[in-house]
Amino acid sequence: MNYNELTLRYFEAAASAGVLEGPGTFRGAAGSRAQGTWVQFDLRIDHGIIRAARFLAFGCPHTIAVSAWVAEKGPGGGLRDGFPATVADLSALFAVPTEKRGRLLIVEDAWMAALSAAR
């Protein structure tokens, strides 16, 4: 499969990969490894603002790249802002094939679970 430049950049250098721990940190996850896609986000929240985000993901390069992008773009947003982009926008941005778009919903669900844990 061919991946676009943005997918390869975020897949090969996922700078936001890892975990956060400590006060003000909240975790959300979705999917399962048995089903082939699992994503976890850790968010550090201060006064209702996302100050840092990290992710762990099991899945295809698209899943990992989109998770890395979301973890990079999410900080600075608030608890009520939701997911940093629409699934349709991410699908176009990362050239995700139609048969893989459901994986982006898992990324969104994990992000929203982390926000819900913080509320």
Task: Describe it.
With 119 residues, the chain is α+β, with helices and mostly antiparallel strands. The protein has helices at residues 5-12, 61-73, 87-93, 101-118, and strands spanning 25-32, 37-46, 49-58. It has one domain (5-118): Sufe protein. Chain: A (Alpha-Beta Complex), CATH 3.90.1010.10. It is built from four helices and three strands; from the N terminus they run H-E-E-E-H-H-H. The longest helix is centred in the last third of the chain and has 18 residues, at 101-118.
Map the helices and strands:
Blueprint: H1 5-12, E1 25-32, E2 37-46, E3 49-58, H2 61-73, H3 87-93, H4 101-118
Antiparallel strand pairs: 1-2, 2-3
Helix pairs in contact: 1-2, 2-4, 3-4
Rounded to the nearest angstrom, the radius of gyration is 13 Å
- Identify the CATH class: Alpha Beta
Helical coverage, percent range: 25-40%
Shape: globular
> What fraction of residues sit in β-strands?
15-25%
Cα separation of the termini:
40 Å
Q: Tally the helices: what do you get?
A: 4
User: Segments where pLDDT lies below 50 for 5+ residues?
Assistant: none
Mean pLDDT over all positions: 95
Strand order of the largest sheet: 1-2-3
Q: How many structural domains are formed by the residues?
A: 1
Quote the CATH topology.
Sufe protein. Chain: A
- What profile does the largest beta sheet have? 3 strands, antiparallel
**Assigned CATH architecture:** Alpha-Beta Complex
Output the structural class: alpha+beta
Number of strands: 3
Q: SSE string, helix = H, strand = E?
A: HEEEHHH
Structure summary:
The chain contains four helices and three strands. The chain has helices spanning 5-12, 61-73, 87-93, 101-118; strands spanning 25-32, 37-46, 49-58.
